Amino acid sequence: MKALSLLLLGSALFFLQPAAAVPAATIEADEVIVRVPMPGRTVTAGYLTLHNHSEQARQLIAVQSDAFARVELHTHTHVDGMMRMVQVDAIDIPAAGKVSLQPGGLHLMLFEPQQALEEHQSVPLHLQFDDGSHMQLDARLVMPPRR
Ligand SMILES: [Cu+2]
């Protein structure tokens, strides 16, 4: 069962990242998604998990996308009992570990879509790391959760 799900995960990743040029060979990304902006909104969030297969801690320092005017690295923090989003300079990826960007925590904040964004399409993401390496990904567009 486990072998089967790993196999399925592997093929899903291959499908999601067909042309991924990955000079950052020791970093691997999965579960790469961007939410379709809510109607009338020009900002949305993106999530992914980064695995560090090296023995050195690494940092994600910047993300760009041709599909958005600007992408920021954000986290959530509690300020006076309220959840607030704040921009961060970098996201740590521990040595031989991983970091997950997910709702309520670290995330990508994507501003001003440059094209129409529809569910099941994908948008490119270009990730830059602190050691000068970089990674090109395709993020799957998903609908935001209903409230
Ligand atoms: Cu944010």
Question: Which terms would index this structure?
Answer:
disordered N terminus, mainly beta, ten-stranded mixed beta sheet, 10 strands, globular, Immunoglobulin-like, 147 residues, binds copper (II) ion
What's a quick, concise take on this entry?
It comes from Alkalimonas cellulosilytica. The chain is mainly beta. The chain is built from one helix and ten strands, in the order αββββββββββ.
Task: Describe the structure in your own words.
- The radius of gyration is 15 Å and the shape is globular.
- The chain contains one helix and ten strands.
- The longest helix has 15 residues.
- It has a single domain, classed as Immunoglobulin-like.
- The N terminus is likely disordered.
- By secondary structure, the protein is mainly beta.
- Strands 1, 2, 3, 4, 5, 6, 7, 8, 9 and 10 form a ten-stranded mixed beta sheet that branches.
- It binds copper (II) ion (CU).
- Copper (II) ion binds next to strand 8.
- The site of copper (II) ion has 4 residues, from strand 8.
- It comes from Alkalimonas cellulosilytica.
- This is Copper chaperone PCu(A)C.
- Keywords: Signal.
Strand content: over 45%
Order of helices and strands: HEEEEEEEEEE
Spans of at least 5 consecutive residues whose pLDDT stays below 50 are 1-22
| CATH architecture identity | Sandwich
Q: Give the domain tally.
A: 1
What is the CATH T-level topology? Immunoglobulin-like
Q: Name the overall outline.
A: globular
Largest sheet: 10 strands, mixed
- CATH class value: Mainly Beta
Number of helices: 1
Determine Rg (CA atoms, Å).
15 Å
Instruction: Find the CATH superfamily.
Output: PCu(A)C copper chaperone
Structural class: mainly beta
Proportion of residues in helical segments: 10-25%
Q: First CA to last CA: what distance?
A: 34 Å
Average pLDDT: 87
The unique ligands bound to this protein are: copper (II) ion
Number-wise, the strands total: 10
